[in-house]
From TrEMBL:
PANTHER family: AMME SYNDROME CANDIDATE GENE 1 PROTEIN, AMMECR1 HOMOLOG. This is DUF51 family protein. It comes from Piromyces finnis. Pfam families: AMMECR1. Gene3D superfamilies: Hypothetical protein ph0010, domain 1.
Length: 201
């Protein structure tokens, strides 16, 4: 990745700005980072008594201009992740935000040809009723969960909606797996407050 395209904290601060604008009506300052095209994900965590809890994570594998992509997914991930209720104004000061810009997508012949903690995986598979399904895990997930490659693949299958009673090795070998890398940065609400103070000086 070229130096001016690497994910920076400014990407995350912009997501905070977008969500803050939605919750309070404050205007958003136009981003100054390069508007290159990337597949991207926005992840929100809630900090409670020092512990971090996932609060929303959604993105898109279709490369899009990051200004528009972050503006869109900052809200979708915080307000429309079906696993959670929408983020509230009360929760806002307890949030952290992470942005992942995805790159180096490679379809592999061997579904185990990727490295935990280095690659994310994107799988495409057919459910027992013939429905075509997909799922992904960003590179940090398997490492954080202490999963093996097989456990990560199985978890991705279940996440994507596989409804079979048991996942066999024979079935695993039918999936299509693409590995990718991610450049990720994250910021806290405290970082965002400092940014706002600097911005308003």
């Amino acid at each position: 990745m070229s130096e001016d395209s690497v994910c920076t904290k400014e990407h995350c601060l912009y997501c905070f700005d977008v969500l803050n604008s939605y919750l309070t009506g404050e205007k958003i300052k136009k981003p100054t980072f390069p508007n290159k095209k990337y597949p991207l994900f926005v992840t929100w965590h809630l900090i409670i008594r020092g512990e971090e809890y996932l609060r929303g994570c959604i993105g898109n594998f279709k490369a899009m201009e990051v200004h528009q992509g972050l503006k869109r997914y900052a809200l979708i991930s915080s307000l429309q992740d079906s696993r959670f209720e929408p983020v509230t104004k009360k929760e806002f000061p307890k949030l952290t935000c992470a942005v992942s810009l995805l790159h180096d997508f490679e379809e592999v012949d061997d579904i185990y040809d990727w490295e935990v903690g280095v690659h994310g995986i994107w799988i495409e598979f057919e459910d027992i009723d013939g429905e075509e399904l997909t799922a992904t895990f960003l590179p940090e997930v398997a490492e954080e969960q202490n999963w093996s490659k097989k456990k990560t693949i199985d978890s991705a299958l279940r996440k994507g909606g596989y409804s079979g009673p048991k996942i066999t090795e024979e079935y695993r070998q039918t999936i299509k797996l693409t590995r990718y890398r991610s450049d990720k940065k994250s910021v806290s609400y405290e970082d965002y407050l400092q940014y706002k103070e600097t911005k308003n000086e």
